[in-house]
Structure formats: structure tokens, C-alpha cells
Write a structure and sequence with these properties.
With 173 residues, the chain is mostly helical. It is built from 4 helices and no strands. 69% of the residues lie in helices and 0% in strands.
């Protein structure tokens, strides 16, 4: 049995650190997007109920409509971005000899011995790059639309606030 040298241990620890940070980031991203979308749907429904109570006085409810579309885009983004525990299977090498030190992938070779650190290093780099590119290509358009809707929501919220300020402010004595 050959033990890893110090440089390999440091590389492995840096990969573990990167993996933990990526898991935390993905988990936080999913929870923020989910709760943000749920809040927008809930508040949109609540404002709609107020609108039904007094439609002539609550016409500015329509300024909140972009929030509902933004929530739907948020839910669709959540569905397309994998959770961290779903990514783990990508890193299980099916064939230890499939990646050589030069980074070339050969999926025809049979697994006959354990992975060396260098082969695992190459597999890890290739799989991470492929996974990130696949996710980015899948949600790129949705993220752009979400950003655009965020700007539209901000503009509509400022317009709504301005209209309500002039409509409902009572001047003091």
C-alpha cells in the first residue's frame, strides 16, 4: 500500500474544502430562492384578497403582478439546479483507467485496479467543469429573466410606493 505524500494530502484537503463550500452555497441558494418565491406568492395572494375587497381603491395591486412571474421563474430555477447530494454520483468513477494523466478520457478501458491520486484529480476536474457548464447552460436564460424581473419589480414597487404616498398621505395640522 502506497501512502500519499504531503502535496497530495494538501490537494485532497483543498478539494474537500471546495466541496463543502459548494454544498453550502448550493443549499443556501436553494433555500433562499424557495423562500423568496413562496413569500412573493403568499404576499401576492394576500394583496389580491385586499384588491377583491375594494377594487377601486386597490388598483395599484397590479404593480405587484411582476412578483408573481418572478416567483414562477424562481421555482423553475430551483427545479433546474441540482441539489448538492444529487451531484455526488457524478464524482464516482465508473472506470478508474478512464482518465489518464494527460486529461484524456477513455471510457472503453476496463477497471482493473484502484484509482491513483492523479487519475482521481483529473476525473474530479473534468466532472466539476462538465457539471458547472451543464448547469449554467441549463439555467442561463432563466437567471437573466429573473434578474430582469427583479429590476421590473423594483421599478414597479417604487412607482407603487410613490402613488400610495400621494394618494394616502394625510396632511397634519
Amino acid at each position: 500500500m502506497v501512502l500519499p505524500d504531503g502535496e497530495q494530502v494538501i490537494k485532497t484537503l483543498s478539494y474537500m474544502n471546495m466541496a463543502l463550500q459548494a454544498e453550502i452555497m448550493l443549499s443556501n441558494f436553494h433555500s433562499i430562492m424557495f423562500y423568496q418565491s413562496v413569500t412573493e406568492v403568499f404576499l401576492g395572494g394576500l394583496i389580491f384578497i385586499f384588491f377583491l375587497r375594494a377594487p377601486t381603491q386597490m388598483w395599484y395591486f397590479l404593480f405587484h403582478a411582476p412578483h408573481l412571474f418572478r416567483a414562477l421563474f424562481g421555482f423553475s430555477i430551483i427545479e433546474k439546479i441540482p441539489r448538492s447530494h444529487n451531484i455526488v454520483d457524478l464524482f464516482k468513477p465508473k472506470d478508474p483507467n478512464a482518465v489518464h494523466n494527460d486529461g484524456e478520457v477513455n471510457e472503453q478501458e476496463e477497471a482493473t485496479h484502484q484509482l491513483s491520486f492523479e487519475n482521481f484529480d483529473n476525473i474530479f476536474r473534468l466532472k466539476v467543469s462538465a457539471a458547472v457548464l451543464a448547469v449554467v447552460n441549463t439555467v442561463k436564460t432563466r437567471l437573466k429573466m429573473y434578474a430582469l424581473l427583479t429590476f421590473v419589480c423594483f421599478v414597479c414597487d417604487v412607482a407603487d410606493l410613490t402613488i400610495q404616498r400621494f394618494e394616502f398621505v394625510v396632511k397634519s395640522d
